[in-house]
Design brief:
CATH superfamily: PPM-type phosphatase domain
Number of helices: 8
Structural class: alpha+beta
Helix content: 25-40%
Number of domains: 1
Number of strands: 16
CATH architecture: 4-Layer Sandwich
Largest sheet: 8 strands, antiparallel
Low-confidence stretches: 1-24
Oligomer: single chain
Order of helices and strands: EEHEEEEEHHEEEEEHHEEEHHHE
Radius of gyration: 19 Å
Distance between the termini: 23 Å
CATH topology: Phosphatase 2c, domain 1
Length: about 300
């Protein structure tokens, strides 16, 4: 098995992926499944390998448009998180549909492909389902959703992403990185500014639209899926955070990392992060969006 080290993080080569994950050993068939979209809840799950906490917060919104799902057993854990968008209940419907589609695909097909290919295929199925949805009352459906998913098998991490929900990796006392790339207009204009194709003045003008998504589940025939081409080899003590943008709109990455790395308990860490968002919203006189966090600690 060949190992590659990039930025101090060990990953497996593609040959190693094909060799190590050629069988159905990474898939779970009797795992505990959970799906949620409640306004406010905290869940803690402990397995032999992972400590997991889930927190949902409706914030100042009228409804919770985030939705999450997970399937766990001792050797593996699978997570999916969506942040819905759209008209009346459109985002709520889209996020729930997408989560269910990915969880269903996992239970039905996991192990038939290598994990990287599976995650992409499941994401495409979710996009097809949401983009083709027609309400029974004949009304127009304009819902869409972001989607991030992560598969942790023993000490290996696979993930993919559509939209601007994020996956972070925290390690040691002060190391952290955002694994996903935001698929929004800010990423576009940031790139244009680096290349010199727009001026700083033009950048600041366009920045008003920076949070607009350039990709989402429900767009139809989705092509842009962000994913890790080779799995990360995780260390004991590593923490993985899946979150919707309600968290990082109010807290900088540094502030998020400080709380996650400072507090050992995953449950206490997500509670503290929520408290920080409430405090910052009051200080800045800003409203709070829905936020959902899934924090996993590798034992």
């Amino acid at each position: 098995m060949f190992l590659i080290i990039i930025d101090g993080i060990i990953i497996l080569s593609k040959n190693a992926v094909n060799t190590f994950f050629h069988s159905k050993s990474w898939a779970m068939y009797k795992g505990k499944r959970m799906q949620g979209a409640k306004d406010n809840e905290i869940i803690r799950i402990d397995t032999a390998r992972y400590e997991i906490a889930v927190l949902t917060d409706v914030g100042d919104r009228d409804e919770q448009q985030d939705s999450y799902g997970l399937i766990t057993e001792n050797e593996s854990a699978f997570f999916v998180l969506c942040d819905g968008m759209g008209g009346y209940q459109g985002g709520r419907v889209a996020s729930r549909m997408a989560v269910k589609a990915v969880l269903d695909a996992y239970e039905e097909q996991a192990g038939d492909q290598d994990p990287i290919a599976f995650l992409q295929e499941a994401t495409r199925k979710a996009d097809e389902l949401v983009s083709s949805y027609e309400p029974e009352d004949g009304s127009h459906f304009d819902g869409g959703t972001t989607l991030i998913s992560a598969l942790v098998y023993k000490h290996y991490l696979f993930w993919n992403s559509v939209g601007d929900s994020r996956i972070y990796l925290f390690r040691g006392k002060d190391e952290y990185t955002q694994l996903t790339q935001d698929q929004n207009y800010r990423t576009v204009i940031d790139g244009q500014l680096r290349l010199g194709t727009i001026t700083e003045e033009e950048y600041h003008t366009e920045e008003k639209k920076a949070n607009a998504l350039i990709n989402y589940i429900g767009i139809g025939d989705i092509e842009l899926i962000d994913y890790n081409h080779t799995p990360f080899l995780l260390n004991s003590g590593d923490r993985i955070l899946l979150t919707t943008d309600g968290l990082y709109r109010l807290l900088e990455d540094r502030q998020i990392a400080e709380e996650v790395l400072r507090i050992k308990s995953t449950e206490e860490a997500v509670k503290d992060l929520k408290a920080k968002t409430v405090q910052n919203a009051k200080t800045r006189n800003r409203s709070r969006d829905n936020v959902t966090m899934i924090l996993i600690r590798i034992k």
